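Changelog-adjacent note: as of this version, every example in the card shows the full chain rather than a window. The one below runs 467 residues end to end.
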Amino acid sequence: MEVPLLERKTSNDGRLLNSWLKEVRDSLGRESIFQGKEVIYPVPLCLKKDETKLFYHPKEFCFGPQHFRAKALGYKYGEEIKAEVVRKFNGLLTKGLFSVVAKFKEQTMQERIVKSYAILDRSLINNNEVISWLLVRDACFVIEVLYRENHHPLLNDIVKDMFKLENQLPLWVLEEIMVSLGWPIEGNWFEPVLKNLSPVEVKQRSRSPTYSKKIHILQLLGEYMVDNRAGQSISTSSQYDETEHNREDEESGSHDSKAIQEDGNHHNQEDVQSDPYDNLIINGLLIMFYVFLFLILLPVIILWLLWLVICFMWGKAEKNERHVPTVGELDKIGVNLKALKSKGISRIEFKSKSSTLYLPKFTVDDRSEVIVRNLLVMETHWEDTEKVITRYVVFMNDLISTSLDVARLRTEGIIVNKLGSDDDVARMWNSVTIPATGIPKYDQIDTACTKINAYRRKWWRVLWSQF
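Full-length structure tokens:
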């Protein structure tokens, strides 16, 4: 006998209420998801708008359990490609992938899987075999993509999906698969991969740095971009270049002064023998020339002095240590821009003596915005960690306002534009959503901002460069 619609609805509501009550009671005895930080978080719903949803949701390739329910329906093409890779990995193992799945089904491994995700579908938690196959299968595909010698024709689409926060696999899952295959895991085995995929150009390091935590590939990429090597000050190579350049200038200046002195002695001997009336004529002509030049430049000097007075009365720069002017405004006050040679975000610096701002080289392509946006969301969940990427994005957002700013940065080699249009690059930096929690602190960039604003307040220097 068919159940009436009203009774059926009441029954469903009752099951929903009971399920909710059970979830509330169970949550009282659960550990906080914000304690360990070794957790993969979901993206807040407020960021998943219609126009920005594709930056956070997988497009073709779904990894991990966050989008498990949509996996069988919307990602059939990506799942078929995964199946080809999984068959290959199954043949590489003596007992096949069934032995790896059996290991993941153990109680200790299941507890580790649950702790690796902030929010996990309850149906997956209660089904050890499904979540084990899910992680093993996806991990095999990620490893194949990262280590494939001949690039996959869909590599760009795969990488864009692979660096979305909700699409992350715990790093320890990848390492478990590699151990099962007998592949060596030496130190930071992922660094060559990060070097190829990082939008910020960082030099290959002879000594691998220590990462604050090893959660997933997206987090590793963020720390790689920062390039925060302990015990080194910023822009050492640029300082070396300037020192060498100044030394060459001093040497050339000393040689020139010697030559001028010898040449002057030679002329003095000739002047003794010359006619004194010729010297009077030459001096008179020089005096007339300087008087004539002064009369021509006098109106310009008067106008400049008037403009100087107006600027002192109404045009003083606002003191805002956390923000900087745009590239166009910096250009007007005589600030030079220079690209750092293979150094990350932590090497940003402003040198007042040479009026030079040093910035890392950043490649903008169709996957850069995906990486930047997901790194920002990742940092919002970290309470006691420096949010370096967020501070860097705020800094670049200040510098770039129009396509003209992008063109200047591109000319200096700071931005490599692979989007084709400078307007698209400016739109990317200006459209990235910054969390409304205030500007995070990062000493290196904050110091550069302070120095730039102090430079702006040296009015005689700024006005002279504008003049």
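Structural remarks: The first helix runs from residue 5 to 28.
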